[in-house]
Amino acid sequence: MKKVSRRLQELRKKVEERPYQPLDALNLLKETATAKFPESAEAHIRLGIDPKYADQQLRTTVVLPKGTGQTVRVAVIARGEKVTEASNAGADVVGSEELIDEIQKGRMDFDKLIATPDVMPQVAKLGKLLGPRGLMPSPKGGTVTFDIAAAIEEFKAGKLEFRADRTGIVHILFGKASFTAQDLLVNLKALQETIDRNRPSGAKGRYWRSVFVSSTMGPSIEVDINALRDLKITEAA
């Protein structure tokens, strides 16, 4: 069994086993982010879905209004003038077939990979490499598009792709622990609204089961789901 550090044991004493009001939970997240590096804010959301069925899968994107707090390195695979467009739009890595070859040989110096639809047949052979890392371009994720400039801008500004894992849980970063609690709340609310808007057609019964937040190395804090869903965006802004 994994040994729990003394630091985490002490932090866990600050967290009661009950759902917290969203802002209280986020203030507590900040208070328990005591690691010696800048921690991220994480959400772990259990949904009432079984992703082994096609109509109960959740895969989409969210634009975090307050950003992610992270520098996102974007790579683009395209052809012709789209390569120039990608460079001008601020892509960190740009190429065509030669970039596909480099990735096959192990090049992975990027956090997001965008491809134009016309190169997807060639990109498909990278599936085994990119899939496990969550980097495979997909139309649902907004990473297969001819509108390269807009896609680069969105992902660099705070757009995230996410999906429910095979147990129906969404694990996602929604900012940095150094953000104000109010800014974290705005991002968490945007995430909740996105998940509600993209409810799979096959989801039956209670959709939201539990929401926990934590810093990277901090204890889990339960958030009152109903309070989060009832929150008006003007209150969170």
TrEMBL record:
InterPro entries reported in the protein's UniProt record: Ribosom_uL1_bac-type, Ribosomal_uL1, Ribosomal_uL1-like, Ribosomal_uL1/biogenesis, Ribosomal_uL1_3-a/b-sand, Ribosomal_uL1_CS
Superkingdom, taxonomy of origin: Bacteria
Key words, A-Z: Repressor, Ribonucleoprotein, Ribosomal protein, RNA-binding, rRNA-binding, Translation regulation, tRNA-binding
Alphabetical list of Pfam families matching this protein: Ribosomal_L1
One cellular component term from this protein's GO annotations in UniProt: ribosome
Quaternary structure note: Part of the 50S ribosomal subunit.
NCBIfam families (alphabetical): rplA_bact
Task of the protein: Protein L1 is also a translational repressor protein, it controls the translation of the L11 operon by binding to its mRNA.
Family per similarity comment: Belongs to the universal ribosomal protein uL1 family.
This protein's name: Large ribosomal subunit protein uL1
